[in-house]
Write a structure and sequence with these properties.
alpha/beta, 238 residues, single chain, 6 strands
Length: 238
């Protein structure tokens, strides 16, 4: 059965989007500090975390590949709609806004019964669910959080390579990031081109939407290869 492998990129919304009470809530930890420099540093730190929370940020890109055929799409928010060069297997589709992007994603997702992610259970899936709910975008697949100790319908490789966090933070099966796992198994890291998730906000501001899309696709391609390693060498271990 065909599996959908996907990854998302998110970017924090402007602080001015939130009212005074919300801003006080978001930066409360910083305001508790007595030193002005420390407060400023903490505010900067908290602002960076805003891209990780679905009520303070938006989905700006979703890359998707069929695990078997490696064909797929990259949906990304872009201010212009010029035709972009495409390869034979992946279509790059610019979207006017997040609602259009999420709608297109769930339209694809409904054709797949199973998904593969890296840390999707902890981040991508709940993020997509909450953003879609907030924007009133119909969700075509509501079972992706499912039973944690099963690889169907959702195989989260971050959980598989830690055997569901069997040894905690510092044990033999501690969790590493995708970059580290890729290098350990001889897979080209998606970060080898010099772009990371931390760069997304600045790339959005600079209008470099295609660069975000290319980076997100590299993440998914790496996840496909890592899934193949897991399937061939580790699947079935209990």
């Amino acid at each position: 059965m065909a599996k959908l492998v996907f990854d998302i990129e998110t970017s924090a919304l402007p602080v001015d989007n939130f009212d005074e009470v919300q801003q006080e809530y978001l930066f409360r930890e910083a305001e508790k500090l007595p030193d002005e420099a420390a407060r400023a540093a903490k505010r900067t730190e908290l602002a960076q975390f805003m891209s990780l929370w679905p009520f303070t940020s938006q989905v700006v890109c979703i890359a998707m590949l069929n695990a078997e055929s490696s064909r797929g799409q990259v949906l990304f928010i872009a201010e212009d709609f010029e035709d972009a060069a495409e390869n034979d297997q992946v279509e790059f589709i610019p979207c006017a806004d997040e609602t259009e992007l999420l709608t297109a994603f769930w339209d694809v997702a409904k054709h797949y019964d199973e998904v593969v992610t890296f840390n999707g259970r902890g981040f991508d899936v709940p993020f997509l669910y909450l953003r879609s709910a907030q924007l009133n975008v119909p969700i075509s697949r509501k079972n992706w959080l499912g039973y944690r100790y099963a690889t169907e319908p959702h195989c989260d490789l971050a959980e598989q390579f830690t055997f569901y966090n069997v040894s905690g933070r510092d044990g033999a099966a501690r969790k590493f990031n995708l970059d580290f796992y890729c290098k350990a198994f001889g897979i080209e890291s998606p970060k080898s081109h010099g772009v990371t998730g931390m760069d997304v906000k600045d790339l959005m501001a600079a209008g470099k939407f295609r660069e975000i899309a290319e980076y997100c696709l590299r993440d998914v391609k790496a996840t496909v290869l890592l899934y193949q390693v897991w399937k061939e060498r580790l699947a079935g271990i209990k």
